[in-house]
Amino acid sequence: MGQREILTSSILACIAIAVGSAALVGRAQQRTDQPPSSYAPVVAKEPFEQTMARMSKAKAEVMKRHMDLLKERYDLSDRPADRVTMSRGKPVQEGVRARLPKGVAWQQLAAMTSEEIREKDLWPAGFYPLPHPNHPEGGMVFPQSHIDEIKKQTGRDLTRFDLDFDLPDHLLADFPPAIFLTTRPDLGDVSRGKLVTSDNFYELFNGILNPKQLEGLRLLVTPFPQQQFNATEDRRSARPSLGVTCFDCHTNGHTNGTTHLVGDIRPQEFRHRLDTPSLRGVNIQRLFGSQRALKSVEDFTEFEQRAAYFDGDPVIATKKGVNILERASQVHFMAEFMSILDFPPAPKLNLYGRLDPAKATKQEQFGEDVFFGKGSAPSATQPHTIQTI
Fold first, then answer.
1. N or C: fewer beta carbons within 10 Å in the chain?
2. Do residues 101 and 112 lie in contact, with contact meaning Cβ atoms separated by under 8 Å?
3. CA 246, CA 230: separation in Å to the nearest integer?
């Protein structure tokens, strides 16, 4: 990506803030005929076999509609960057991926004010919230690579009969991701190239972690019932399921792109899609989710089991088998392990997190200038102006 493209992309990111949430709501999915409710139905109205047959039949059309939306909004082609890779060597993708309205160029948008873009309805659709593959249904959807490896190692099947994962593999993180620990930087990747599961966590980490951290890791790879994967008749797996693990979404303490809907917004069509974030560096984070009550990684861990696994609905959680974690001897241990997950080594950064001029390329330095300059949010004392080169 050239310098002009980088600058233009950064300028448009700033404009996104100015366009505001009103436009986002305008593009939200249409409400259904049913009056909005804070609760999911508790009592199933049809047998499981009938539900599975109905949703399996509808799957092809649901996925076609969603994939058509992706193709309309984004360029999802495989365009690896030259000599820029992830920890295991997988190429990082490059280039602007949001598609523009017909007949519009990036330079035109960069020269317009946010009000002009809104009035002429020229905002690229790729910058609007991306819906879940089936937004009215929602729920956890896992990449096929993760499904296959979990089934191979543990026998659990995370396949949904109603939905498939939607993003191509080349746009996802390394699988399985490397694991770096703040306590043992000398060891490098402690996962040894493996997906950490209940089958191998002890073998991999015994002698590296203390007993509390090891117990926390055990809980992070232990499956517990979840909204779509459980033993009830309204599950979305063909067979009754033990559930999912924390590390099914936060794979190896990082991410595999698993998608879901946030639990703190109602009605359903206003809920935001999320792709599970990395837990690397969680020890220095101060934001642990959209739920404002979460003040620590312990809060985050406890909330996930009590409500997030069940779309934020404690009534459904009781029905499907909520796992209440004990704060002092379980939640605390899980948080202890998560708090030592480190970022990958960054040899081009100095102690202050800035590029070392002796190691960085000119293009990388230009990108840093944009990131900390025009690409950063304007302060309250600075007028919001748009400049071009």
1. C
2. no
3. 15
In which residue are the tokens 């539900």 written? 51
Phi, psi of 275 (to 5 degrees): -110, 125
Domain boundaries, the chain: 1-31+55-130+355-389, 131-345
Global pTM value? 0.84
Cα gap 140→274, rounded to integer Å: 10
Selection from 373, 341, 340, 339 nearest residue 354 by Cα? 373
Could you tell me if 255 and 173 are in contact, meaning their C-beta atoms sit under 8 angstroms apart?
yes
Residue-wise pLDDT tens digits, 278-316: 999 998 887 776 666 778 889 988 888 888 899 888 889
Q: Which residues pair with 180 in a beta bridge?
A: 342
Query: Is residue 157 within 8 Å of residue 233, measured between CB atoms?
Result: no
At 342-381, the pLDDT tens digits run 999 988 999 888 999 999 999 899 999 999 988 886 654 4
- Cα gap 188→338, rounded to integer Å: 17
Task: Give the C-alpha separation, 328 to 301, whole Å.
Answer: 12
**182 phi, psi to nearest 5 deg:** -65, -30
